[in-house]
């Protein structure tokens, strides 16, 4: 059985739990409290030398890190990853957008404000993250005005990856009321949560 | 024929040019000078709403953004992407490592120092990027002590993605003399450059 080393408040961990649950794949969850530096112990670094959760233990001593690489791995040959070659690449495009333009701004703001409770301490850095985070939300909004899901006509791991931190963006100080297409897409995602 | 919208000094663009050249795929290059905001014009934003280079035009009105998604697309069914399912996911793991832990520190430092020439202006931010950039180099060094290439036993797009900014890391103020395994790997990569 898969073992998932993760941290409950992490959106990156949430992505993997969501897909495993949707695919009805059983797994054991092992909590790694990153606030206590539990992802920096020698034992954990042997699993992921980059010291980050989530990590999927596929079999003993076979580990996979990076949430979006785990989504890629688990979704192969399922409806969550397209068959079409160009659409597969479009999924990857949105996964890299998520990790480069979305997560470092929206997730990091949420981490500082709602998980660490240090909004004042990070005031200046948060201002820049607001600008870049809203820019990412605008890219999503304009795309979702034209289509129901990020790639093709169906729900894929691109939606899962972007849903994770977007649906809690308000915990990072982002106001979604000006993004009707994102809000409608969030609702469409909820259908898949049950 | 493919059209590549790119900017010569960009390592993200370099990755794509390198793979296209290695695969002997002809392409037309269109220079987009990001220093003149040419990636923010309405014409360019119609190609990539996220306003970043490189962008691959696969056919008229069919665009793919995000350098590592382009590498994924071009490498399918070639020796640069493994056949094995787990090794494919490991390639993805290193591509996400590159975009999250490596590029934002090493490439951004190089951009500020060597492309913008604003080392003094960014002094404080550069200090943090040095710490995180060296942490990424340490992860690479420890991995390359054990194997010749990042995934499996052969050269893949994981090596191309990480080569792009590592081989010019000194332009970002990173000293590679303490990383012998990285240096040996850089030399192994050069074999594929001709």
Automatic annotation (TrEMBL), chains A, B:
Family: Belongs to the GST superfamily.
GO MF, one example: transferase activity
PROSITE patterns the UniProt entry points to: GST_CTER, GST_NTER
InterPro entries named among the record's database cross-references: Glutathione-S-Trfase_C-like, Glutathione-S-Trfase_C_sf, Glutathione_S-Trfase, Glutathione_S-Trfase_N, GST_C, Thioredoxin-like_sf
Record key words, sorted: Transferase
Domain GST C-terminal: 84-194
PANTHER family xrefs: GLUTATHIONE S-TRANSFERASE-RELATED, HYPOTHETICAL GLUTATHIONE S-TRANSFERASE LIKE PROTEIN
Species the sequence originates in: Crocosphaera chwakensis CCY0110
Lineage of origin: Bacteria, Bacillati, Cyanobacteriota, Cyanophyceae, Oscillatoriophycideae
Name this protein carries in UniProt: Glutathione S-transferase-like protein
